[in-house]
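ARCHIVE RECORD
Type: protein–small molecule complex
Small molecule: magnesium ion
Source of inputs: curated submission
Record status: active
Notes field left blank by submitter.
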Amino acid sequence: MWKDTMLQILIALFPVFLFLVWHDRAERTRYANVFLAVLCALSMVLTMHYSTVTEQGQHIDFRFVPLLIGSLYGGIPSAAALSIVYVILRTGELSTELDYIIFYIDTAIFLPVLFSRIAAFRRSSRSGRIKLTYTLCIMMLLLAFFSYLYSIADSEFNTILFHIFLTMVYGLAVLFVSGTAVHFTEMAFERVQMQAEVRDVSLSYGNEVRRLQQFIDNTPLIVVFLNDKGLVTHVNDLTLKLMSPVNRIDVINESFGYLVEKIDMQFESCPVGRVMQGEERVTEMVTTRGRSFYTVCCPVKDAAAGSSEGILFIGHDVTELQLLKDEIGRMERLSLVGQMAASITHEIRNPMAVIRGFVQLLNERGSEDQQYYFRIVLEELDRANAIINDFLSLAQNRIIEKEPANLHNLLSELLPLIWADANMRGQTIELQMCQNIDWLDFNCKEIKQLILNLARNGMEAMNDKGGVLRIETRNLADSVELRVIDNGVGMPAETLERLFEPFYTTKASGTGLGLALCLSIVERHNGKIRVESMVGKGTTFIVSFNKPEAIAV
Ligand code: ADP
Ligand code: MG
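STRUCTURE (tokenized, with ligand):
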């Protein structure tokens, strides 16, 4: 009996052992179901073939261990195939009517339960799977035991007790075999899963390393790695560029001093040496080949041991930053000078007003030929005053007060003035205003000055009679546009380039402040100013004021 039991155990377990040997690669997972199902079917045939009945009438037959394992791990198709094999094998053994009845009852109870649990089995955790296998196993044993009990019900009480004892021993053996089978099957799957995980981890590790390498090589920093002996182990692309024609192989395994010599850097004291002596972080500003570098040297720590396993040297090119800093300093000084100039010019206006008053007085009292000179003095004083006014409005960068206004209204208020100016020059004004125009926040005084400056420039550019100055407005989706178009002399490229520079003028009596002022006004109104010009054809100034929603976006 023991021999037969051992044989049954071996046959019941051989599919699992074979599976363990075979399933050693992730690629085989696809065929695992079929492989397991075929082996289990074979195991079922063999267990049936070698099944025996003890002297006490106890069946020694482990066939449902492969049925259980194959069905649970193989999924519904395998379970279906194995069930068919099981049913065929069992029906071949049945002889009496009672056998058939018992078989029908057992199968009708067990198989539906088995099938209903397969999906849950696959979803559950390892311990869940073991639990489910034991539950199904016990259920099957109970069914087998009851049918068996039925067949020996007529025996003596003692015999029945003995049978119950035997069945319990047998049941424990079956439970043990099923547990072992599940354990080894799980092991096979886990091993492959672990392999896949290790592969994934090493793949993502490789990617991470590549990404880091790319970052180090392409970063606009000097990056040098050194080992704990202070020898160079890696230099990035920017460092290579700085030390060309020396290449990477020449500096690897060389000392830091050698590398520094190649990139022309001179340190007060070698930062790598200081780090090797235990300093945590050494920073220094160094200049090489006309560029400034902010350098940092620090140890690379081993995260686990906390010990230093190398040294990292980084250099950041801060030349532009330095230049910008210098530039800001210069600008600040300039702006101070500008402010002083503004306050001085402001003060000059008072004595000039006094002079003008007296000259006016003298002019009224003076003789005819003296008046000619006084008029010239007065005109020049007015011109000086106009320059001072323009200069002051340009220099004043104060926050201006704005109120909702309509460009059309401002234009209508200005029109008589422009009209008169144009009349005097023998030119005409064409006005083309769009239908509706949005109200925007304007400083009316400034906008009027802007329009006047642009219009006056246009008129001055059309010195010959018959010039036409067009003023157009447009209400666009995100902005309000003002166009001042003349058909005057136009501008060459060099004028276009310097147009908005303060004091840039091509006119004998110009100040060169008009457009600089226009630009600062437009900027204060969150707008933009564009120029289109062709020599001999004319010029168009386009001013666009953003609508508030457009700014918010
Ligand atoms: P100003 O009018 O005092 O010369 P501006 O700053 O108003 O100073 O203009 C600077 C220069 O730009 C002018 O001297 C002129 O050469 C050029 N310019 C400005 N507007 C026009 C225009 N509509 N057509 C041709 N040239 C222009
Ligand atoms: Mg001008």
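CURATOR ANNOTATION: Residues 453, 456-457, 514 surround magnesium ion (ligand 2) (CB under 6 Å).
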